[in-house]
Amino acid sequence: MVNIETKFLGLNLSSPIIVGSSGLTGKTGSIGKLEESGAGAVVLKSLFEEQILAGIARETRKGGVVYGQTDIDDYIAFYERKHSINDYMDLIRDAKKAVSIPVLASINATSDKEWQAICADLDKAGADALQLNLFVSPFDMRVAGEGIEETYVSIVRKVKALTSLPLSVKIGPYFTNIGNLVSRLSQAGAEAVVLFNRYASPDMDVQKMSIKSASARSDETEYRSSLRWTALLSPFVKTDFAGATGIHDAITAVKFLLAGAKVVEIVSTVYKNGEKRIGEMNDGISMWMKENSFTSINDFLGKLSADNIADTAGLERVQYMKKFGDIG
Ligand SMILES: Cc1cc2nc3c(=O)[nH]c(=O)nc-3n(C[C@H](O)[C@H](O)[C@H](O)COP(=O)(O)O)c2cc1C
Description:
This protein has 328 residues and is an alpha/beta fold. It has one domain: TIM Barrel. It has 12 helices and 13 strands. Strands 3-4-6-7-8-9-12-13 form an 8-stranded parallel beta barrel, surrounded by 7 helices. A two-stranded antiparallel ribbon has the order 1-2. A hairpin with a 2-residue loop joins β1 and β2. α1 packs parallel to α3, α2 packs across α3 and α7 runs parallel beside α8. The protein is globular and about 60 Å long. The protein binds flavin mononucleotide. The site of flavin mononucleotide has 23 residues, from β6 and α9.
Protein backbone atom coordinates (compact mmCIF):
# COMPACT_ATOMS: atom_id res chain seq x y z
CA MET A 1 0.00 0.00 0.00
CA VAL A 2 1.47 3.35 -1.09
CA ASN A 3 1.12 6.44 1.09
CA ILE A 4 1.87 9.89 -0.35
CA GLU A 5 1.24 11.87 2.85
CA THR A 6 3.95 14.34 3.79
CA LYS A 7 4.74 16.92 6.44
CA PHE A 8 5.55 20.50 5.48
CA LEU A 9 5.98 23.43 7.89
CA GLY A 10 4.79 21.08 10.65
CA LEU A 11 1.47 20.56 8.82
CA ASN A 12 0.22 17.12 7.81
CA LEU A 13 -0.56 17.02 4.09
CA SER A 14 -2.42 14.25 2.28
CA SER A 15 -0.29 14.90 -0.83
CA PRO A 16 2.97 16.72 -1.65
CA ILE A 17 1.16 18.66 -4.38
CA ILE A 18 0.37 22.21 -3.26
CA VAL A 19 -1.39 24.64 -5.55
CA GLY A 20 0.70 27.81 -5.53
CA SER A 21 -0.41 31.38 -5.11
CA SER A 22 -2.27 32.56 -8.22
CA GLY A 23 -5.71 33.38 -9.59
CA LEU A 24 -6.55 29.71 -8.94
CA THR A 25 -6.40 30.33 -5.19
CA GLY A 26 -8.07 33.73 -5.02
CA LYS A 27 -11.69 32.56 -4.66
CA THR A 28 -13.22 30.02 -2.31
CA GLY A 29 -15.14 28.24 -5.10
CA SER A 30 -12.01 27.42 -7.03
CA ILE A 31 -10.12 26.51 -3.85
CA GLY A 32 -12.84 23.92 -3.11
CA LYS A 33 -12.27 22.36 -6.54
CA LEU A 34 -8.52 22.14 -5.87
CA GLU A 35 -9.17 20.22 -2.65
CA GLU A 36 -11.62 17.87 -4.41
CA SER A 37 -8.98 17.22 -7.06
CA GLY A 38 -6.44 16.09 -4.46
CA ALA A 39 -4.32 19.14 -3.54
CA GLY A 40 -2.42 18.69 -0.27
CA ALA A 41 -2.69 22.40 0.54
CA VAL A 42 -3.21 25.76 -1.15
CA VAL A 43 -1.29 29.02 -1.01
CA LEU A 44 -3.79 31.84 -1.34
CA LYS A 45 -3.42 34.58 -3.93
CA SER A 46 -1.03 37.15 -2.46
CA LEU A 47 -1.94 40.34 -0.78
CA PHE A 48 0.51 42.68 -2.49
CA GLU A 49 2.28 45.36 -0.49
CA GLU A 50 2.16 47.47 -3.66
CA GLN A 51 -1.60 46.87 -3.88
CA ILE A 52 -2.11 48.34 -0.43
CA LEU A 53 0.13 51.30 -1.21
CA ALA A 54 -1.42 51.89 -4.66
CA GLY A 55 -4.88 51.87 -3.08
CA ILE A 56 -3.76 54.53 -0.67
CA ALA A 57 -2.27 56.64 -3.45
CA ARG A 58 -5.47 56.27 -5.55
CA GLU A 59 -7.74 57.33 -2.73
CA THR A 60 -5.63 60.34 -1.82
CA ARG A 61 -5.88 61.58 -5.43
CA LYS A 62 -9.58 60.84 -6.06
CA GLY A 63 -11.28 63.43 -8.33
CA GLY A 64 -7.96 65.08 -8.96
CA VAL A 65 -7.86 66.24 -5.34
CA VAL A 66 -4.57 65.91 -3.59
CA TYR A 67 -5.51 66.61 -0.03
CA GLY A 68 -2.02 67.37 1.16
CA GLN A 69 -3.32 67.58 4.70
CA THR A 70 -1.48 65.11 6.75
CA ASP A 71 -4.39 64.17 9.00
CA ILE A 72 -6.82 63.57 6.07
CA ASP A 73 -4.17 61.72 4.09
CA ASP A 74 -3.40 59.63 7.12
CA TYR A 75 -7.07 58.82 7.61
CA ILE A 76 -7.50 57.78 3.95
CA ALA A 77 -4.32 55.76 4.05
CA PHE A 78 -5.54 54.05 7.18
CA TYR A 79 -8.98 53.38 5.60
CA GLU A 80 -7.53 52.02 2.34
CA ARG A 81 -5.04 49.82 4.10
CA LYS A 82 -7.73 48.48 6.41
CA HIS A 83 -10.02 47.84 3.41
CA SER A 84 -7.50 45.73 1.45
CA ILE A 85 -6.45 43.92 4.57
CA ASN A 86 -10.02 43.20 5.67
CA ASP A 87 -10.85 41.75 2.25
CA TYR A 88 -7.86 39.49 2.55
CA MET A 89 -8.78 38.35 6.05
CA ASP A 90 -12.26 37.51 4.69
CA LEU A 91 -10.65 35.39 1.96
CA ILE A 92 -8.67 33.45 4.59
CA ARG A 93 -11.75 32.93 6.80
CA ASP A 94 -13.92 31.85 3.85
CA ALA A 95 -11.25 29.50 2.51
CA LYS A 96 -10.83 27.91 5.92
CA LYS A 97 -14.59 27.34 6.11
CA ALA A 98 -14.71 25.92 2.58
CA VAL A 99 -11.89 23.36 2.77
CA SER A 100 -10.20 21.12 5.30
CA ILE A 101 -6.73 21.09 3.72
CA PRO A 102 -4.17 23.58 5.09
CA VAL A 103 -4.51 27.14 3.80
CA LEU A 104 -1.37 29.25 3.57
CA ALA A 105 -1.80 33.01 3.46
CA SER A 106 0.56 34.82 1.10
CA ILE A 107 1.98 38.29 1.27
CA ASN A 108 4.05 39.85 -1.44
CA ALA A 109 6.58 42.04 0.27
CA THR A 110 8.99 44.44 -1.37
CA SER A 111 10.26 46.32 1.67
CA ASP A 112 10.58 45.95 5.41
CA LYS A 113 8.17 48.82 6.21
CA GLU A 114 5.24 48.90 8.61
CA TRP A 115 2.87 46.71 6.53
CA GLN A 116 4.14 43.78 8.57
CA ALA A 117 1.76 44.72 11.37
CA ILE A 118 -0.95 42.85 9.44
CA CYS A 119 0.85 39.58 10.11
CA ALA A 120 -0.74 39.49 13.54
CA ASP A 121 -4.21 39.51 11.90
CA LEU A 122 -3.36 36.47 9.79
CA ASP A 123 -3.18 34.28 12.90
CA LYS A 124 -6.60 35.51 13.99
CA ALA A 125 -8.16 34.90 10.57
CA GLY A 126 -7.15 31.24 10.85
CA ALA A 127 -4.39 30.80 8.26
CA ASP A 128 -2.39 27.62 8.85
CA ALA A 129 0.88 29.20 7.73
CA LEU A 130 2.24 32.24 5.96
CA GLN A 131 4.18 32.36 2.73
CA LEU A 132 6.12 35.52 2.01
CA ASN A 133 6.58 36.17 -1.66
CA LEU A 134 9.68 38.36 -1.44
CA PHE A 135 10.90 40.61 -4.18
CA VAL A 136 13.06 43.59 -3.37
CA SER A 137 13.55 45.72 -6.47
CA PRO A 138 17.06 45.38 -7.94
CA PHE A 139 16.58 48.19 -10.47
CA ASP A 140 18.52 50.92 -8.65
CA MET A 141 22.13 50.67 -9.79
CA ARG A 142 23.34 52.56 -6.73
CA VAL A 143 22.26 49.78 -4.35
CA ALA A 144 24.69 46.88 -3.96
CA GLY A 145 23.45 43.30 -3.85
CA GLU A 146 24.45 42.97 -0.21
CA GLY A 147 22.03 45.73 0.81
CA ILE A 148 19.20 44.10 -1.12
CA GLU A 149 19.84 40.71 0.46
CA GLU A 150 19.89 42.31 3.89
CA THR A 151 16.36 43.63 3.21
CA TYR A 152 15.19 40.06 2.48
CA VAL A 153 16.64 38.85 5.77
CA SER A 154 15.32 41.84 7.67
CA ILE A 155 11.76 41.27 6.39
CA VAL A 156 11.85 37.65 7.54
CA ARG A 157 13.23 38.60 10.96
CA LYS A 158 10.56 41.27 11.49
CA VAL A 159 7.68 39.11 10.27
CA LYS A 160 8.82 36.21 12.42
CA ALA A 161 8.64 38.44 15.47
CA LEU A 162 5.04 39.39 14.61
CA THR A 163 3.42 36.06 13.85
CA SER A 164 3.31 32.66 15.44
CA LEU A 165 2.42 31.05 12.10
CA PRO A 166 4.89 28.71 10.43
CA LEU A 167 6.71 30.81 7.86
CA SER A 168 7.80 29.94 4.34
CA VAL A 169 9.63 32.29 2.03
CA LYS A 170 9.43 32.20 -1.75
CA ILE A 171 12.37 33.79 -3.52
CA GLY A 172 13.55 34.14 -7.08
CA PRO A 173 16.73 32.58 -8.50
CA TYR A 174 18.74 35.74 -9.12
CA PHE A 175 21.28 35.93 -6.32
CA THR A 176 25.05 35.63 -6.44
CA ASN A 177 25.18 33.00 -3.70
CA ILE A 178 21.78 31.40 -3.20
CA GLY A 179 23.02 28.99 -0.51
CA ASN A 180 24.26 31.84 1.63
CA LEU A 181 20.97 33.72 1.35
CA VAL A 182 18.84 30.64 2.01
CA SER A 183 20.80 29.79 5.16
CA ARG A 184 20.46 33.41 6.38
CA LEU A 185 16.70 33.30 5.74
CA SER A 186 16.54 30.08 7.71
CA GLN A 187 18.51 31.59 10.60
CA ALA A 188 16.16 34.60 10.53
CA GLY A 189 13.23 32.25 11.17
CA ALA A 190 11.99 30.86 7.83
CA GLU A 191 10.82 27.30 8.44
CA ALA A 192 10.59 26.67 4.69
CA VAL A 193 11.93 28.13 1.47
CA VAL A 194 10.27 27.87 -1.91
CA LEU A 195 12.76 27.61 -4.78
CA PHE A 196 11.98 29.47 -7.00
CA ASN A 197 9.38 32.05 -7.91
CA ARG A 198 9.00 32.79 -11.62
CA TYR A 199 8.90 36.47 -12.48
CA ALA A 200 7.16 38.26 -15.32
CA SER A 201 9.61 38.99 -18.13
CA PRO A 202 9.32 41.57 -20.87
CA ASP A 203 9.37 40.88 -24.57
CA MET A 204 9.22 43.25 -27.54
CA ASP A 205 6.75 43.68 -30.35
CA VAL A 206 8.96 44.78 -33.23
CA GLN A 207 6.00 45.73 -35.46
CA LYS A 208 4.31 47.98 -32.92
CA MET A 209 7.68 49.09 -31.52
CA SER A 210 6.50 48.41 -27.99
CA ILE A 211 7.26 46.37 -24.91
CA LYS A 212 4.97 43.45 -24.24
CA SER A 213 4.80 40.75 -21.57
CA ALA A 214 6.07 37.26 -22.19
CA SER A 215 3.78 34.39 -21.15
CA ALA A 216 2.88 34.35 -17.45
CA ARG A 217 2.91 30.56 -17.53
CA SER A 218 5.97 28.35 -17.33
CA ASP A 219 6.68 25.45 -19.64
CA GLU A 220 7.75 21.98 -18.53
CA THR A 221 11.48 22.56 -19.12
CA GLU A 222 11.82 25.40 -16.61
CA TYR A 223 12.22 23.34 -13.42
CA ARG A 224 15.92 22.52 -13.62
CA SER A 225 17.43 25.47 -11.79
CA SER A 226 14.98 24.94 -8.90
CA LEU A 227 15.85 21.24 -8.92
CA ARG A 228 19.60 21.90 -8.84
CA TRP A 229 19.42 24.24 -5.85
CA THR A 230 16.96 22.07 -3.94
CA ALA A 231 19.28 19.08 -4.32
CA LEU A 232 22.37 21.12 -3.38
CA LEU A 233 20.91 22.89 -0.35
CA SER A 234 18.27 20.63 1.18
CA PRO A 235 20.72 18.48 3.17
CA PHE A 236 22.61 21.44 4.58
CA VAL A 237 20.05 24.11 5.53
CA LYS A 238 17.73 23.34 8.42
CA THR A 239 14.51 24.34 6.74
CA ASP A 240 11.85 22.59 4.68
CA PHE A 241 12.15 22.94 0.92
CA ALA A 242 9.37 23.35 -1.61
CA GLY A 243 10.06 23.11 -5.33
CA ALA A 244 8.41 25.56 -7.70
CA THR A 245 8.45 26.66 -11.36
CA GLY A 246 8.03 24.40 -14.33
CA ILE A 247 6.70 21.41 -12.37
CA HIS A 248 4.04 20.11 -14.74
CA ASP A 249 3.81 16.35 -14.17
CA ALA A 250 4.25 13.52 -11.66
CA ILE A 251 7.76 12.52 -12.69
CA THR A 252 9.03 16.09 -12.29
CA ALA A 253 7.42 16.17 -8.84
CA VAL A 254 9.20 12.90 -8.00
CA LYS A 255 12.52 14.50 -9.02
CA PHE A 256 11.96 17.27 -6.46
CA LEU A 257 11.17 14.75 -3.72
CA LEU A 258 14.38 12.90 -4.63
CA ALA A 259 16.18 16.27 -4.41
CA GLY A 260 14.88 16.69 -0.86
CA ALA A 261 11.81 18.93 -1.30
CA LYS A 262 8.93 17.97 1.01
CA VAL A 263 6.38 19.40 -1.42
CA VAL A 264 6.05 21.03 -4.81
CA GLU A 265 3.98 24.08 -5.66
CA ILE A 266 2.24 24.00 -9.03
CA VAL A 267 0.38 26.71 -10.93
CA SER A 268 0.91 26.77 -14.72
CA THR A 269 0.15 23.08 -15.22
CA VAL A 270 -3.23 23.55 -13.48
CA TYR A 271 -4.01 26.54 -15.69
CA LYS A 272 -3.05 24.53 -18.78
CA ASN A 273 -4.53 21.12 -17.91
CA GLY A 274 -7.28 21.91 -15.40
CA GLU A 275 -7.65 20.76 -11.76
CA LYS A 276 -7.64 17.12 -12.89
CA ARG A 277 -3.87 17.46 -13.30
CA ILE A 278 -3.53 17.41 -9.48
CA GLY A 279 -5.13 13.94 -9.26
CA GLU A 280 -3.07 12.75 -12.22
CA MET A 281 0.10 13.86 -10.44
CA ASN A 282 -0.93 12.13 -7.19
CA ASP A 283 -1.65 8.92 -9.14
CA GLY A 284 1.59 9.22 -11.10
CA ILE A 285 3.65 9.61 -7.90
CA SER A 286 1.91 6.57 -6.36
CA MET A 287 2.52 4.50 -9.50
CA TRP A 288 6.20 5.44 -9.60
CA MET A 289 6.52 4.53 -5.90
CA LYS A 290 4.91 1.13 -6.52
CA GLU A 291 7.22 0.43 -9.46
CA ASN A 292 10.20 1.26 -7.26
CA SER A 293 8.93 -0.56 -4.15
CA PHE A 294 8.59 2.55 -1.98
CA THR A 295 5.66 2.70 0.42
CA SER A 296 6.10 6.21 1.84
CA ILE A 297 7.67 9.45 0.68
CA ASN A 298 10.24 9.24 3.46
CA ASP A 299 11.56 6.05 1.81
CA PHE A 300 13.06 8.10 -1.00
CA LEU A 301 13.02 11.74 0.16
CA GLY A 302 16.38 13.34 -0.64
CA LYS A 303 17.81 10.15 -2.19
CA LEU A 304 19.45 12.25 -4.93
CA SER A 305 20.33 15.29 -2.80
CA ALA A 306 23.94 16.47 -2.52
CA ASP A 307 24.84 14.39 0.55
CA ASN A 308 23.41 11.15 -0.85
CA ILE A 309 25.23 10.99 -4.15
CA ALA A 310 28.85 10.06 -4.65
CA ASP A 311 29.76 13.06 -6.76
CA THR A 312 28.01 16.43 -6.75
CA ALA A 313 29.73 17.57 -9.98
CA GLY A 314 26.59 16.73 -11.96
CA LEU A 315 24.58 19.14 -9.80
CA GLU A 316 27.23 21.86 -9.83
CA ARG A 317 28.23 21.81 -13.48
CA VAL A 318 27.29 25.03 -15.27
CA GLN A 319 29.63 25.22 -18.26
CA TYR A 320 29.91 22.90 -21.24
CA MET A 321 33.71 22.97 -21.52
CA LYS A 322 34.07 19.25 -22.30
CA LYS A 323 31.28 19.20 -24.84
CA PHE A 324 32.74 22.18 -26.68
CA GLY A 325 36.13 20.48 -26.45
CA ASP A 326 34.69 17.35 -28.08
CA ILE A 327 33.01 19.36 -30.80
CA GLY A 328 36.17 21.41 -31.38
C1 LIG B 1 -1.57 34.08 -13.27
C2 LIG B 1 -0.56 33.96 -12.16
C3 LIG B 1 -0.74 34.66 -10.97
C4 LIG B 1 0.21 34.56 -9.94
N1 LIG B 1 0.03 35.26 -8.78
C5 LIG B 1 0.92 35.09 -7.76
C6 LIG B 1 0.71 35.72 -6.50
O1 LIG B 1 -0.26 36.45 -6.27
N2 LIG B 1 1.64 35.51 -5.53
C7 LIG B 1 2.74 34.69 -5.71
O2 LIG B 1 3.53 34.50 -4.76
N3 LIG B 1 2.95 34.09 -6.89
C8 LIG B 1 2.08 34.26 -7.90
N4 LIG B 1 2.29 33.62 -9.10
C9 LIG B 1 3.50 32.79 -9.25
C10 LIG B 1 3.17 31.32 -8.95
O3 LIG B 1 2.76 31.13 -7.60
C11 LIG B 1 4.39 30.41 -9.20
O4 LIG B 1 5.43 30.72 -8.30
C12 LIG B 1 4.91 30.52 -10.64
O5 LIG B 1 3.84 30.57 -11.57
C13 LIG B 1 5.82 29.35 -11.00
O6 LIG B 1 5.14 28.11 -10.89
P1 LIG B 1 4.56 27.34 -12.18
O7 LIG B 1 5.69 27.09 -13.09
O8 LIG B 1 3.96 26.08 -11.63
O9 LIG B 1 3.54 28.24 -12.80
C14 LIG B 1 1.35 33.71 -10.12
C15 LIG B 1 1.51 33.00 -11.33
C16 LIG B 1 0.58 33.11 -12.34
C17 LIG B 1 0.78 32.33 -13.62
